[in-house]
Here is the input.
Amino acid sequence: MTDNVQGVNSVDIAVAILNYIASHHGCARASAIASGCGLSKSRLHKYLVSLSRTGMLRQDENGQYCLGETLIKLADAVPGNQDVITLVNPVLCDFRDRMNYSTGVAIPTSEGLVLRHYHRSFKNVDIDFLDNTPVPLDASAAGLIFMSYGVYPSPSVEERVQIERVRQQGYAVRYKPTHGIPGAQSIACPIRDSHGTLVAIGVTMGFFENDDEIYRVAQELKSALSQIRL
Here is the structure.
C-alpha cells in the first residue's frame, strides 16, 4: 500500500471516529468508539492521541472523548453560521439585560447541538456554561426544539406528543433538573430562516418562581426572537 493510500485511509478513519462521537451527542468512551468504528483498541488509541493533540478531541473528567475546540472553530468558519450568531447574540443580550435571565444560542449540527455562546445574568446566584458546550438532545429545552423543528428521525409516541405541544406553543420548557445539568429551568425557542429551516435556538435559563413566570418569560423570548430576519 502506498503512502498516499495509507494517508487517505487514515483520514477516512479519523472522520469516522469524529462522526461516531458526534452521533452520540459529542462524547463517547474509547471502548464504545472502538466497537462502533470496527477498530482494535490499540489502533484506536493512536487516532485518539493524534486527534486530541490537534484539538479535534478533548477528554472530559469522566474519561470520555468529546468534540474539541479546533473542530468547533472549524464549524464556526462555515459560511452562514457566524452570520446567524452575529444577528442573534445582540437580541439575546438585550433580553438578558431587560429580564435579568441568562441567555444562550445553540446551533444545530448534523448530529446534535452545541451551545455556541452563553450570556450570564447579573444575579448573584446563577449558573454558568462555557461557550461551545454540547447540549443533550433528550434532556434540555433546546433539545426539544431540535426534535420539534429539526431533522429528528423516528420519534417515539411520547416524543411525538411532546413535539406537537412544542409546535403549538412555539417554545419548549425543561421543568425538572436533569443529571449533568444545573438545577435551573430553561426555555428555548426556534430561530428559522425564510424557508422555515431551523438554523439556531435561543435559550433562556434561571430559577423561575412559578408557571406564570415561565409563561411570561417564554412569550417575551418568542417576541424578541421573532424580530430576527434571516
Residues 3-74 form a domain with the Arc Repressor Mutant, subunit A fold (CATH 1.10.10.10).
